Amino acid sequence: MATKNLALSELRGKTYTEIVFDQVWGQVESYQATHPEQEIFMMALGDTTKPLPSTVVKAIVEAANRLGNSQTYTGYEDITGNPALRSAICTDYYQKKIGIEIDSSEVFISDGAQSVSVNIQELFAPDNIVAVQNPTYPSFVEGALLASRSLVNLPCLEENNFVPRPPDKKVDLIYLCFPNNPTGAVATREQLKSFINYAKSNQAIIIFDAVYSPFVTTPNIPKSIYEIEGAQECAIEIGSFSKWANFTGLRVGWCVIPQALKIKNTVPGELNNLWQTRHAVKFWGTANVAQHGAIAALSPAGQKECQEVVNYYLQNARLLRDGLATMGLECFGGIDSPFVWVKAPQYLSSWQFFEKMLEAKGIVGVPGCVFGDNGEGYLRLAALGQRENIEATVKNL
Ligand code: PLP
């Protein structure tokens, strides 16, 4: 007799995606039905809106044409990713942009960061305890709940600039995301070092989500956890082409599992090998055409175009922050990140502030409490929209 997965059915209706689609959209739709004259400024989704860089488009078209020709057709590829892409991530991303050495055997290509950020938990025993920032990117929590793991919260508050301290109890896995979604906060070298010290003393692993690191503009803010000494022994890093190269639909990301990574019952290289085994069982690679697009994004011409994309979104965030500040609203983030974390005035709750912004200004964000209870009293606005939309929003403020 087949029975349902209880962990999955318990999550039903409570995931971030479902809350945004049912409750946020639901409220917007019902408000619009009674107020058709109100212009709506959509800033809820962290989805990109600019087109793919032309260098990427050209590479994709060429790759598709090669697939359409019997002389140049290729089928299955290396399941851990196109070797040229893995090597470009090492040299053109980590070495040239950040100044750190990663071996291509440590890089695994995925269909974006989302799947790997949850699936990576499969490397570890079911009883491992997971620490998450609160508020946090919800998938880390949802993945842990799906695997029936215990969770420990690391509070991210205004008092600590939304950067938590290492856990004060023993945990096994620690998710960190910087620049952070939803708060837009970044962590200093010293703050990251304290997590590495914790991980090394407790044989814990840090899962570092660096999806927004190309948005870092503040000097001396690390773009990769591997900029901190000792991280190769205790941290996995996740990256993505989604936000800085507009790949949200194309789907290419990666994770780095260093050969030096080591926990209690493993030798160096073993976790990397285990992830290869997991690929052999569950994941046979990312679309080859998309991977050619990613290689092009890392070429000199591609990087130049991608930098323009990042500058564009950051300028959006700046305009939004400045506009909100003129209204007297207190804002965080939006400097090294495309997210602006807006504090609700007059002790409004997240949902009350959401409603007020919708009804008074037509602005749609995501109530901060959806990202964890420490997000109560905030609203997250995403600045990944078109400039005209941002300018119209600001004008309306
Ligand atoms: N990690 C964070 C922190 C994100 O904000 C997102 C997307 O919004 C993802 C991962 C997923 O990105 P991808 O499109 O690469 O799957």
Explain briefly what this protein structure is:
The protein has 397 residues and is α/β, with parallel strands linked by helices.
Task: Assign the structural class, choosing from mainly alpha, mainly beta, alpha/beta, alpha+beta, or little secondary structure.
Answer: alpha/beta
Question: Which topology of the largest domain does CATH recognise?
Answer: Aspartate Aminotransferase, domain 2
In CATH terms, what is the architecture of the largest domain? 3-Layer(aba) Sandwich
CATH class of the largest domain: Alpha Beta
Largest sheet: 7 strands, mixed
* Relevant CATH superfamily of the largest domain: Type I PLP-dependent aspartate aminotransferase-like (Major domain)
Overall number of strands: 13
The share of residues in extended strands comes to 5-15%
**Amount of helix:** 25-40%
Q: Your description of this structure?
A:
The protein is of the alpha/beta class. It folds into two domains: 11-52 and 303-396, Aspartate Aminotransferase, domain 1 (Alpha-Beta Complex), CATH 3.90.1150.10; 55-301, 3-Layer(aba) Sandwich (Aspartate Aminotransferase, domain 2). 40% of the residues lie in helices and 13% in strands. The chain is built from twelve helices and 13 strands. The protein has helices at residues 6-11, 16-34, 54-67, 83-98, 113-119, 138-146, 189-202, 270-282, 288-297, 300-326, 350-361, 387-396, and strands at residues 41-42, 107-110, 130-134, 151-155, 173-177, 205-209, 235-240, 253-256, 331-333, 339-343, 363-364, 366-367, 378-382. α10 runs parallel beside α12 (387-396). The longest helix has 27 residues, at 300-326. The mean pLDDT is 97. The site of pyridoxal-5'-phosphate has 14 residues, from α5. Pyridoxal-5'-phosphate (PLP) is lined by residues 46, 112-114, 117, 137, 177, 181, 209, 211, 240, 242, 248, 253.
